[in-house]
Each structure stands twice: as C-alpha cells, then as structure tokens.
Amino acid sequence: MMRFWSCLGALLALFSHISWAQSRHGLLPLPAEMHWGQGRLNLRTPLKLQFDTPPDPAVAAAARRMLARLQGPAEPAKGPVLQIRYGRAGQPEKLDEERYSLRVTPMGVSIDAPTSLGVLRALATLEQLPIIEKKQRYLPEVDIQDQPRFAWRGLLIDAARHFMPVAVIKRNLDGMAAVKLNVLHWHLTDDQGFRIESKVFPRLQTVGSTDGLFYTQAEVREVVAYAAARGIRVVPELDMPSHTTSWIVAYPRLASNDSVYAPYQKWRTTNVAIDPTRETTYTFLDSLLTEMTGLFPDPYFHAGGDENDGRNWRRTPRIVAYMKANKMVKADGKTVDKHQLQTYFNRRVLALLQQRGKTMIGWDEILGPDLPKEVVIQSWRGKKGLSDAAKLGHPVLLSNGYYLDLNYSAASSYLTDPLPADTSLTPAEQKLVLGGEAAMWAEFADSTVLDSRIWPRAAAVAERLWSAQAATQDVADMYRRLNLLSPQLETLGLRHRRAPELLLRQMAGTASVLPLRTLAEVVEPVKEYKRHFQGYDYTTASVLNRLADAAPSESEVARRFAVLVDSVVAFKPTSPNWLPASLRQLAALRAQAIRWQANDIMLQPLLAANPSLTEYGPLSTRLAAVATVVLERLTQLQTGKSPSLAWLAATRATLDAAQAPAGQAELAVVKAARKLAGL
Ligand code: ACM
Q: Hey, which family's this protein in (predicted)?
C-alpha cells in the first residue's frame, strides 16, 4: 500500500513538474528562492571543503562542524567539493547582510555570499538538505538564493527565574543557528535572581539570588564568543526599575521605601522598584553599567522597564513630594503620574547607556511622548504596542504572539506577523520594524525542561521572521518541516525530546513507561499564566518534575488527531461516499481511540501508587471517556447513522468534563473530539 502511495506521489510530482525533493524538502526557514533540479549528489563520497581565500577561523570552524555532522570527521583529499566564497567578514552588530546563494549539482556544492554571515546561514540550509532514498543519502540538485525578511530574529532566554547553565545556553545557540535566529536576548536579572557577576557590586550575585547561581564574567565572555562564532548577537537585559527585588535585597540603598526585603521566592510580579529620585541610584547605575556594557560588544542594551505599577513610588511620601515638585502630575494637576517619573528614569538610564555607545531597548510600557526616539521598543502586551511605537518614530521589535511560555501552538506564532498584509504603518514606519523575538520566560522552565518549551516551536517564529510573507501561508507544511527539523535539533545537543521522556521514566520507576507516555503525549500544561492560579503555590524551590512538566507545550499526537478529524468531517457521513483515503483515516482514528481507551486500566495502578502522579488520575479516566465517544461516533459515521439527541447530550457532558484541568495540565484532544461529534 505504501508503495502505491509513494508511486502515486512521484507520478503527481512528475506531471506537475515538481521534483520529489521540492515537495518533500525539510528546509526551515523557507529560502527566498529555490529552483530544484532532477539530479543529486550522493553523500557516500564525503565533500571536500575548499575556500576561495583564507577564511575567517569562525567560518572555517562552522563549515567543519557542519560537515562533521553531515558526513563524519573524515576530511577527504579529493572528491566532490564544497566550495565557499565570501566577500568580507560580516558584522552582526551592524545588522549586516546575511544573503547567500547555495548551489548543489551532481558534481559538488558551492556557497557564495557577500559576507561571512551569509556563509553561516548557507551552511545551516545545506545541513537540512539531505534526503534518504533506498538507504542512500543524497543532496538534491538545487539552486537557492536566500536572504532574511527581518534583520532582528531573536530568542529571549530568561536565566533569572531559573538559572540556565552555560551548556544549556550554548546548545540553544546551536539550535538558533540551525534556524537562522540571530539574537540571543539574555534576561539576566529579575526579582528572583541577579545572574551575572558584578565585581563592583558583588552582593548582587552572591546575596541577590535565592540559590546563589550566576554567570561569572569569564562565562559571559565565553557565551558571547560562542554566539559570535555562529553569527548570533547577544543582547543582555538588566530589567529595571521594577523586577529588581534581587538588587534591593543586595543593596537596600536602592529601595524606594524603608522596607527590608528578603530574597523573593515566588513568581508573581512584585512591583517593587528602585528609587528613581535619588542621585545615589544613578551613581550606582553609572558604575554597574560601565562594568556590564563592557562585557557585551553588541551596541544594543536592554534596560527592561516592564510591569511597574508605581505602587512603591506612590506609597512613599518622599517620592510623591519629588513628583509634585517636578510637576510629574496628571492632567488634573494634582494626581502624581508614575509614568512621568519612569520616563525621567529612562532618560537618565538612556544617557548612561549612550555615554557607553549603546542603544537602549525597553519593553513597551516605557513608551510615551517624552521618550527619545532612539530607544527601541519591544512590544509584548499587544500588537498595538508595536504600531504605536513605530508611529512615534521608534525602532520596534515584536514579541507579542511569540511568548513560548504561554504554551500556545507553533501555528499561532507562525500566523503572527510583525508586518501583516493589512498593516496600518506607512512605508517609512514599516522600516522601523526591525523584527521580533520569541520569548522563553522561565517561571515554569528549569534547565531540564527549558529546551522542550523552546523547541521546536521557536523554529516557527524563526521562519516567520526570516522567510517571505507570501511563501509562508501553509501551516500544514510548516508542521511537516517542523517534524523533520525536531530530531535534527537533538543531534545538535538539544534535549527537547529526550528530557521529557527521562522525566516520564523517572515517574514510572520500575513500571513500564508506555501507559504514562500515552497519556503525557496528549496532555499539555495549562495555557497562559493559569499555572499560577490552580491551587499549587509555586516558589523558586518547586521542582518541575511532574506530568505537567513532561507534557509537551503543543501535543503532536493531538495535533495529528485533529488533522485526521478535520479530513474525516470534511466528508458527508454516508458510507457509500467514503474514499479509500478517508477509510484509512477512519481506521487510524479508530486505532488511536482504542489505544487511549485501553490505556486507562493499565495506567491507573501507577498513578495511584506514585503520590506525585495521583493528581493525574482524572485525566487518564477522561481520556478513556473521550476515546469511547470517538469510537461511538466513528461507528455512527461508518454506518451512516445519525446520533440521537440523548447521545449528543451525554457526549456534550462527557467532553465538557474532559476539558477540566488536573495537576495544571489538560487534555489536548477534546476540541477535535467535539468537532468529530458534531458539537
Ligand atoms: C514581560 O513579559 N513582562 C516583558
């Protein structure tokens, strides 16, 4: 049967002049232009690396790394050549050109680029090209011309809430390079921890972090160099004036009031802010920023600015008096306006950064008419933040829609465009849109599960920011390529698939992991920030090793189930009309539902025996109930019987109940089951 389908695919490809490689390639992000040929280059004979002129060591190292992964460590003396030519060393910090062309013929491979950055991007593309057929690996013949749509394609990693060791950062940089993300936004400080060594103010890292974990300055330099070798910039964030409990714990003189602060061990926003009215605050920042800006060669520096409701300032008579004396009041002339005080603070920080040659970035809360135009605004609260800032003349970055920690689907990020077709921005304002950043906040991600919360979904953001808008409308094809990419990312050292599996094995102990995996595969952690509000009081000490942590942010099994349901409901439910293809889909759905139905009885003893799993018992029971509904509905469809009103009512009740979360996780198959049931 498979043979029949693949022959049919080949025939269709032939008639539409689409090569096999063209319809099945795994390139992500999609290149700007691809022209596929019919030839191929067999990788049985290793490629020989050849540069036109002596290369930059980082480029030569990147080419060798890629070739080692592609074909092993052998460096052949002869054979087909990987020829690399480029014009000059690229300057990522100047958002330099990343354009390249990549040509594969049966005779060899060539890469041409104006800068070394283009070569790095071409190597990432080349590594995704191999196809396997009849147990042989080939590079398909292709001519690729490629360039990014946006110059700024970032990933924020929050290393403050949970500390992320250097090895974790490095493997994520490798993942970024593979999908052409080019900015690591390193969120280094927050209420719960100050994660970068200051030699001037050492209490920041030794007292400010609840667990005492931080990056030494040598480690920071190591990460910056590792990133640079991959064409990735590192933009540090020191978040202020709020999100600074760790600073104030270490240096109480920064506080806005006379409270004594203990290290903050919970997750919710504190609205604690440093005092913007005292000169000593700026003396402190002057020294700290001299030290910190010196560690990062990138010209951009993120100063945070988010989530300060001003309560710390409004409740301190001395600060209120300062605001009144300086006319920081609302239109009524009386009520103090914390936004004006924060703008004053921003201007002072901006001046300190500018003295050190840095361009300041801030979260969208800092926007206001008095904010100097050179400050880059990162929009996270809504799309409007982006257009408001661009209309006021600020360069902008989009992160709203790209928050990986909200556990939304890859599709939802993919369909979020910094410059949608119906944008209200003028061409000049559109030029201010530098790009965007996926954001991985780490309240619910420690170094074990971090990768699985980032990958593979961040790759959907990478494609949105790299590839042409018109070429990226096909969500199903994005998922097809995401699934090809995901195992490739693990060969780079990422642990997004292995780590959750190990957690499950740990939970299963000596029992078989299979039934637990069957449940975990169709469960997702609750979306948005609901995890904070479902009866479990998380602190920095909470261990993230429960089923909610092993469950994927987006269940691939549930997604495939939904795709099958979509195709089945697209047919009329009268059996004579079923096509062979839809019969196959019905059979696949039935097999899946039978597995789920049978799973509960195998899993319940394990859930009951392990106290940390007991809370998931209801999810297993509900999955079996959903499976029963699915099986009943499939029988109705195949026999052409309409569901009774009683069945519909009972099914609605079953599915409503099945949607309820347990253990901060929920079943990801209920929506599709509803659709199948016609509800
Ligand atoms: C943010 O998510 N508070 C920037």
A: Belongs to the glycosyl hydrolase 20 family.
Instruction: Please tell me the pTM assigned to this model.
Output: 0.96
Examine the domain organization and report whether 485 and 570 are in the same domain: no
Q: How does DSSP assign 44-68, residue by residue? A: TSPPEEEESSPPPHHHHHHHHHHHH
**Pair (522, 594) in one structural domain:** yes
Backbone angles phi, psi at 277, to 5 degrees: -95, -15
pLDDT in tens, 619-662: 999 999 999 999 999 999 988 899 999 999 999 999 999 999 99
Q: Quick one: DSSP state of residue 336?
A: B
Mutate to test the pocket of ligand 1, among 380, 381, 398, 437 (most ligand atoms within 8 A of CB): 380
Q: Which atom of ligand 1 is nearest to the CA of 441?
A: 2
Strands, E assignment, 66-192: 81-88, 100-105, 108-115, 131-133, 136-146, 152-158, 183-187, 189-190
Residue 221 and residue 301 in one domain: yes
CB contact at 8 A, 181 and 28: no
Find out whether the beta carbon of 380 lies less than 6 Å from any atom of ligand 1: yes
349: Cβ–Cβ under 8 A, 6 or more apart, which residues?
240, 285, 289, 303, 360
Active site residue 190: yes
For the packed helices 338-355 and 279-295, what is the interaxial angle rounded to 10 degrees?
Answer: 40
Helix-then-strand count for the chain, H and E: 26, 19
- The per-residue pLDDT for range 451-500, each reduced to its tens digit, is 999 999 999 999 999 999 999 999 999 999 999 999 999 999 999 999 99
